[in-house]
Automatic annotation (TrEMBL):
GO terms for molecular function: metal ion binding; peptidase activity. This is Peptidase M20 dimerisation domain-containing protein. Residues 1-26 form the signal peptide. The keyword Hydrolase applies. It comes from Symbiochloris irregularis. The keyword Membrane does not apply. It comes from the Eukaryota.
Length: 521
């Protein structure tokens, strides 16, 4: 397959060489940025300190507790801190506590005929793991070396601060929204959001609220572009996210004592080995679905290589669409390869009964699938059963049980007004000299927006976090100390500074509410 892919790439290169005179020239690429319309942070030190204060609350979520929180008092104290630090919560916004630890804020608009915009974030964080691996204590909110340090600095207390700072700034400047805005902060996103985001969505639905658009965390600012494609800064906005299916495969057979194994006859472990070999050798098929072609069509504007630019600009057309799938699937980056197939991974293996001298009679394996938009949620179970048959397991020797599922989201139209509104806000707010590309993207993980989709299907949903990331920072936790990845720069001469993130948030809010206002620089 790799040989075929490279042959196809060679043919593509030859064809593009023949077509070179017709290729789009760099001068035709419009990377200009409109005039800024966002509000600026007036007291920068205070804004940074308010954000740092959010990180000092140990709001670690846990599925083992009925509240989905390890320390309920930390969540209660964070709520008090928000009201004390952001006076607008009680002065201009309607506040509703949901499930005790989640927060729904309503900024009433002047035109009740306009459907509201819903802005989502969450206040919980994942566990810190080994604290010795952190450069600074994970709940210190330390301001050091040009960073704010702490769990939640990136995922995702930063967007709580962004939204509240933005609303405060806009209100001070006299901005009065025509469209109502909801700020919805869940408390258990990291463990599925069942008590937080889902409860908020249910409440809104019961009140007859029908959102015009939902905005959540997701894509980021890639400050040095995308390696191998473009060095132009990119704002990647997720317009869809993959689904989630968890399956449990149970293989049974005759056990025994290790001193008397059945020679030449398969046992549970050898059967399991065959299934895992089949699993490794037969991954889910490559499939290119929206918005992946549109991602690379958008990125084509910044490609310096004219052949690559031409190829990417035709990514929505055949046969280039087919070839794009093969090229991405062969990428050494797992994140890139995951764009073009439903992914599958073994996440847990258990055998029993235990004992060094015991031949187990049962093996239980957990498989996790992340399904592409449009994928039949029942397909993973069919796929796994087929692998077992190919491994020559008797049908009576195995069972496949679904432990949980979440369907992939709908795909928000990248040519529609909602994506264009966020795109305009980003272009108007960020001003790197190199220009800026705003590209749609498919998110492999799950966010709280999935809980809203249950109640508001087909509502345009966009996922973006105004955070800077580079090739190095996006390489993965294994390449950097964990705390390093949780830093957000509070100061810089570039527009990628943390304070500009508050300004980006204000720009997005203004644009999403469809009322623009020039604010003091």
């Amino acid at each position: 397959m790799k040989a075929i892919t490279w042959i196809a790439v060679s043919i593509l290169a030859a064809a593009c060489a023949l077509l070179y005179p017709a290729l789009v020239k760099p001068s035709q690429i419009n990377l200009a940025i409109p005039e800024q319309i966002h509000c600026s942070v007036d007291d920068k030190d205070a804004a940074v300190e308010r954000f740092a204060g959010l990180l000092r609350f140990k709001t670690v979520s846990s599925p083992d507790n009925t509240s989905h929180l390890r320390d309920e008092s930390a969540a209660e104290n964070l709520q008090k801190y928000l009201r004390k630090s952001y006076a607008i919560i009680d002065s201009k916004l309607d506040r509703t506590q949901v499930a005790r630890y989640s927060l729904l804020l309503k900024w009433p608009g002047s035109d009740a005929s306009l459907r509201p915009a819903v802005f989502i974030s969450h206040t919980d964080v994942v566990d810190v793991g080994d604290e010795s691996a952190w450069s600074h204590p994970p709940f210190s909110g330390a301001n050091a070396d040009g960073y704010i340090w702490g769990r939640g600095a990136q995922d995702v207390k930063v967007t709580v601060a962004q939204m509240l700072e933005a609303v405060t700034l806009l209100s001070k400047e006299g901005f009065k929204p025509r469209r109502t805005a909801y700020l919805a902060f869940g408390h258990d996103e990291e463990v599925g959001g069942a008590l937080g985001a889902r409860a908020i969505a249910k409440l809104l639905h019961s009140q007859g609220v029908v959102p015009e658009v939902i905005l959540d965390e997701g894509g980021v600012l890639l400050t040095d572009g995308i390696k191998g494609v473009t060095d132009v800064p990119c704002a990647v906005v997720a317009v869809a996210e993959k689904g989630y299916v968890s399956l449990e495969l149970t293989i049974t057979g005759r056990g025994g004592h290790s001193s008397m194994p059945s020679v030449g006859k398969p046992n549970v472990l050898t059967q399991l080995a065959k299934v895992l070999h089949m699993f490794h050798a037969n991954p889910p098929p490559i499939k290119v679905v929206d918005p992946v072609p549109q991602t690379f069509t958008a990125l084509s504007a910044g490609a310096r290589n004219p052949l690559l630019r031409w190829f990417l600009s035709h990514a929505t057309q055949q046969p280039w669409n087919w070839l794009l799938g093969r090229v991405l699937a062969a990428s050494p980056s797992a994140e890139v390869a995951a764009l073009v197939r439903t992914t599958a991974a073994v996440t847990d293996v258990k055998t029993g009964p235990p004992g060094d001298n015991v031949l187990p009679d049962t093996a239980i394996v957990t498989f996790n699938f992340r399904t592409l938009p449009g994928q039949d949620p029942g397909w993973p179970a069919k796929y796994l059963r087929r692998l077992c048959i190919w491994a020559r397991l008797e049908p009576s020797a195995f069972t496949v049980r679904e432990k949980g599922r979440d369907a992939a989201s709908d795909v928000t139209d990248v040519l529609g007004p909602h994506f264009e509104a966020v795109k305009a806000a980003l272009l108007e707010t960020l001003t790197p000299a190199e220009g800026l590309i705003v590209a749609p993207n498919l998110l492999s993980g799950r966010t709280d927006s999935g809980n809203y989709e249950q109640y508001f299907p087909s509502t345009p949903t966009l996922r973006f976090t105004p955070l800077p990331a580079s090739h190095a920072a996006s390489a993965g936790i294994g390449d950097w100390p964990q705390a390093k990845l949780e830093g957000a720069r509070p100061q810089s001469n570039r527009s990628w500074k943390m304070l500009a993130q508050f300004e980006v948030a204000s720009g997005i809010i203004v644009t999403a509410l469809q009322q623009r206002k020039d604010c003091a620089p």
